[in-house]
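Postdoc handover notes: sequence design on the structure in folder B. Input tokens:
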């Protein structure tokens, strides 16, 4: 699915954005007929309100959308998107009332409100189209929206149609679109190429595990994105209960996120040497599934005791991170739907991340605040390193006790990056209920914040 703004034309209906505080002053300058219509329509400027005002001949002359109060706006984002679905079909251009510093985010939200997952069922499209507000980078906003929609589509597709071969096909399609190079190592070739833990986690599935490796750009700093591509997670021999398995089609949300972010980077021609690594597997149950108590040897040579086969995402990421680190890029970023502990800590709306780099933290926090893409820093707490050291092997993939589950997972991953700057995002990748511009289902988290931070992070 792609996103696009309406073409500017004289037929676009003027749209006035009115907060509750601004409504009275705006009405005072309007003809009596407009005042009467607005009052009769019950329009108060509340968030999500929309009203079309007719002209003398009864045809639409202008439209109003509510912008609420400052307190109400702080409790959400993409406020114009809440009203867009209530407007009748047509093109709209913003005439007044939208704060300049919110124009880009509100325009993005309007585009995202047009997202429909229609692969299996026809969906009613968004009827109201927005002309890009003056002063925004319309091409960039379109790229951000299209990248987010790609992420949503990939997560929303069930594992029956989004297994490792399908995830590979999506990556190949993206590479072809942008002229990127792509290579894939599949099945037993993973062992031959020293990617043993990716092979071990995925070998029980009918659809072979693989490592997807995409590269784009030959100028600028080196950025490597690593995304967890567990296309379905049964939990392996430590089988999940049914309630916990229901959403496991989204366990490749990290891969979906980095592919969406890669589109944003490539579509806008960012000067960076981009590499995307995705270990794509299914964690299934069969006679050759890996077992609790097994000890695996990773690409890096570190041994890992398996205390829970449901902690498989960090295993496939570990091999991919070790491969990424060998190239010594300027920055490695991993994204994964890794732990339930992260959801308990911050809920579904925040993207928790780990970084010890003050410059990364500063750039990301600033970018997130301006991108309507909230993040929350979590600690690489060195005192917990002992929790991931079982004694019988170098590392434990599932420390007992349950304390600090997201932190210990991040510390585990950090062991595989020793030559590069590293940040890790433990995302949820799912919107549990409808919200403006974010329908229930798969969603991107952290990607727009990362995109906006990259120019500051990757200065030559």
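Designed sequence:
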């Amino acid at each position: 699915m792609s996103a696009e703004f309406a073409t500017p034309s004289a037929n676009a209906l003027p749209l006035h954005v009115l907060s509750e505080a601004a409504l009275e002053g705006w009405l005072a300058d309007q003809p009596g007929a407009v005042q009467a219509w607005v009052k009769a329509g019950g329009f108060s400027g509340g968030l999500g309100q929309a009203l079309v005002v007719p002209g003398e001949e009864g045809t639409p002359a202008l439209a109003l959308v509510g912008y609420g109060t400052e307190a109400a706006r702080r409790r959400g984002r993409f406020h114009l998107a809440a009203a867009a679905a209530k407007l009748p079909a047509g093109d709209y251009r913003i005439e007044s009332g939208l704060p300049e510093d919110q124009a880009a985010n509100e325009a993005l939200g309007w585009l995202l409100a047009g997202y429909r997952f229609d692969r299996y069922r026809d969906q009613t499209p968004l009827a109201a189209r927005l002309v890009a507000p003056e002063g925004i980078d319309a091409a960039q906003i379109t790229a951000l929206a299209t990248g987010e929609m790609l992420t949503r589509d990939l997560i929303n597709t069930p594992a029956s149609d989004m297994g490792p071969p399908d995830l590979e096909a999506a990556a190949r399609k993206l590479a072809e679109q942008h002229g990127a190079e792509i290579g894939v190592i599949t099945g037993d070739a993973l062992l031959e190429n020293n990617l043993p833990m990716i092979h071990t986690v995925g070998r029980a599935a009918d659809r072979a595990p693989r490592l997807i490796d995409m590269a784009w750009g030959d100028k600028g700093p080196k950025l490597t994105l690593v995304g967890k591509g567990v296309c379905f997670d049964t939990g392996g021999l430590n089988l999940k209960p049914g309630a916990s398995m229901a959403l496991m089609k989204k366990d490749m949300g990290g891969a979906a996120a980095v592919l969406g972010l890669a589109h944003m980077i490539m579509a806008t021609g960012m000067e960076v040497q981009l590499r995307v690594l995705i270990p794509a597997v299914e964690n299934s149950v069969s006679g050759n599934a890996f077992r609790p108590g097994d000890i695996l040897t990773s690409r890096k040579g570190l041994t890992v005791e398996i205390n829970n086969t449901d902690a498989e995402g960090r295993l496939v990421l570990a091999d991919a991170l070790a491969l990424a680190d060998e190239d010594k890029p300027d920055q490695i970023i991993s994204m994964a739907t890794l732990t339930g502990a992260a959801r308990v800590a911050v809920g579904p709306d925040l993207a928790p991340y780990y970084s010890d780099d003050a410059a990364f933290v500063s750039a990301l926090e600033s970018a997130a605040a301006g991108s309507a893409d909230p993040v929350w820093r979590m600690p690489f707490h060195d005192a917990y390193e002992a929790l991931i050291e079982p004694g019988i092997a170098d590392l434990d993939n599932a420390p007992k006790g349950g304390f600090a589950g997201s932190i210990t997972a991040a510390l585990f991953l950090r062991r595989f990056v020793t030559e590069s700057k590293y940040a890790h995002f433990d995302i949820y990748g799912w919107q549990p209920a409808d919200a403006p511009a974010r329908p229930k289902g798969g969603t991107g988290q952290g990607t727009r914040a990362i995109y906006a931070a990259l120019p500051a992070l990757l200065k030559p």
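Context for whoever picks this up: The chain has a mean pLDDT of 96. Don't rerun without checking with the PI first.
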